[in-house]
Write a structure and sequence with these properties.
561 residues, disordered C terminus, alpha+beta, protease, globular
């Protein structure tokens, strides 16, 4: 039997030749869950759940033990989960059922600031949540605490039945959980560094896996679909180690098998990774520095700062192919773990979102200032790069202190957040209010965005004696950051500042360069949206250009007269 379904965003198989799937609305938001009987016409499919809140995205999954389906309706900072058994609901539903939602069981009503994720094991739901122990479920949580691992009986899974299942250290922040019949794998961050705890459910004991590379790595759980397994597969990466996979015996905490590879012509022992703290307003900002061991920081080598700092996403010290050519040429790569990211938990994220977004910018400047004041970098050899929301942070920092940097690269930068958030007809705008605020409904949100918006704040860049050279790239098929955003920012800088459209081919650059490249067939991630064979071509082309731009700009001398 060959059958195709139209408009499917994601899906999960049910029992007895059924499957459940989600579809998108006109704002690219997964908003509806439908049930399909394989072999039947799609027009007979039943709407199981419809989410009317335009800020919410809907997902359909299945618990690892295959006992329940999970419908998660989530925003950027909240969750609402409904479950139904895999072996019963699909038999009860029929096209004449009046209220199919009556078969769904809600675990906890939505509360702003509270997230939770659900799995099932041996008659109990396992819940990973940041809900406070004393909350009333009514008031928004503005400063959510760390995630906790809870449990509740399948017969009474509502939040008033949740009890703590596993306690981690006060300095530990739970990142991920993997459930097995006899074990629970808990991936944590401890003061920003990774660790993996194995909880033995039979013995009620905790053990910790010894991580490779001296712990200087990123840990990502690999697919572990076997519920009855006593082994777990973890993926590892570091700035100087390609992705590897190690299988651990959870009873002994020892590796049993591994799949590793080494980058061509790279000896990891030739490189150094170390950590620094840069003082900023109200916080100490972690930095990860990577360079060849022959590089002396006191000789101010060329340095590239990378930053993101949004959505609670951590800027991980992972292997990045695009950085290897710079490392080989004696560059220092500095990862700035600014507020707004998730490196130090949800509090760190909250410290760089909404009205606190300016902290991300201040933190980046503090990292640059730290390198300059330590004598490890000079402004003539300091570059900075950011992608998407990271590009916003870079662009805002350039205007605050253009004298710090020699060059900057911004890929699909979100440089006009005010116009975007004032345009509800744009895809994803409604869903982004939890991150940036709602300038339409709230004057304080408007003023907060206006304060740091790169497009609306260019005064220092256009009057600076020596503004940095900038490379801006965008994609015409980008559905996250419309191409007009970077285009209008570049146009304003060229119109009001010292930047010229003409590019001087001479290495002795006397004017700052502002290059704008828009590839109209590409999307948000360098790839050609209509050509599956160009998956890596766009990546290689974009980063080759970026590295050439940086090395050329740092090599070029300034006209300081």
């Amino acid at each position: 039997l060959v059958q195709s379904l139209d408009g499917v965003f994601n899906f999960v198989f049910g029992c007895d030749s059924t499957l459940y799937y989600t579809v998108l609305d006109d704002k690219l938001r997964a908003h509806k869950v439908l049930r399909h009987c394989i072999g039947q016409p799609q027009e007979h499919d039943i709407e199981l759940y419809v989410e009317k809140d335009r800020e919410c995205f809907v997902d359909i999954t299945r618990t690892k033990d295959k006992q329940f389906h999970i419908i998660n309706s989530s925003t950027l900072d909240s969750s609402e989960v409904r479950v139904f058994p895999t072996k019963r609901v699909h038999k009860q539903l029929s096209p004449v059922d009046g209220v199919p939602e009556a078969h769904l069981q809600l675990l906890r009503p939505r509360q702003r600031g509270v997230e939770y994720f659900v799995d099932h094991h041996d008659g109990e739901f396992v819940i990973l949540t940041n809900s406070p122990s004393d909350d009333s479920e009514n008031m928004p949580i503005t400063n959510p605490g760390p995630f906790r691992l809870m449990q509740a009986p399948s017969t009474s899974p509502q939040s008033d039945s949740w009890t703590e299942m596993l306690r981690v250290g006060d300095e530990d922040r739970i990142e991920d959980v993997e459930i097995f019949r006899n074990y629970i794998m808990v991936s944590i961050k401890r003061q920003g560094r990774p660790a993996v705890i194995i909880h033995n459910r039979t013995l009620r004991t905790n053990g910790e896996i010894q991580l490779p590379y001296g712990g200087e790595c990123v840990v990502r759980p690999e697919p572990n679909p076997q519920f009855d397994s006593s082994t777990v597969r973890l993926g590892f990466s570091s700035p100087i180690h390609l992705d590897s996979v190690v299988e651990y015996d959870m009873s002994t905490l020892r590796p049993s098998r591994s799949w590793e590879s080494t980058p061509l012509h790279i000896n990891p022992n030739d490189y150094v990774i170390h950590h620094e703290l840069a003082p900023s307003k109200g916080a100490q900002i972690p930095m990860t520095l990577i360079h060849h061991k022959s590089v002396s920081l006191s000789k101010t080598p060329p340095t590239l700062i990378r930053v993101y700092g949004a959505y609670g996403v951590s800027l991980e010290p992972e292997f990045r192919l695009e950085d290897i050519p710079l490392l080989r040429r004696g560059w220092v790569i500095a990862l700035a773990h600014v507020r707004g990211g998730g490196e130090l938990g949800r509090e760190w994220y909250a410290g760089g979102k909404g009205h606190n977004k300016i902290n991300s910018v201040e933190d980046l400047l503090s990292c640059a200032r730290f390198l300059l004041e330590k004598g490890w970098a000079t402004s003539g050899k300091l570059a900075v790069t950011g992608v998407s929301a990271g590009g916003l942070t870079v662009a805002a920092a350039l205007n605050s202190a253009p004298e710090y940097f020699r060059a900057a690269s911004l890929h699909v930068p979100f440089v006009d957040p005010l116009s975007a958030m004032l345009s509800p007809d744009l895809p994803l705008t409604s869903a982004e209010t939890a991150e940036w605020g709602d300038p339409i409904a709230n004057a304080a949100d408007y003023n907060a965005i206006r304060r740091y918006s790169p497009y609306d704040n260019i005064s220092k860049m256009v009057t600076a004696r020596l503004p940095p050279s900038i490379l801006v790239t965008a994609g015409g098929q980008d559905q996250r950051v419309s191409v007009w955003q970077p285009a209008k920012w570049v146009a304003r800088l060229r119109d009001r500042g010292r930047y010229s459209e003409l590019v001087n081919a001479d290495l002795e650059a006397v004017e700052p360069r502002l290059l704008f490249i828009a590839r109209m067939d590409e999307g948000h991630f360098h790839s050609n949206e209509s050509d599956s064979h160009d998956q890596y071509g766009g990546f290689i082309r974009a980063h080759s250009l970026r590295n050439a731009f940086f090395t050329r700009e740092v090599a070029a001398s300034r006209n300081i007269l």
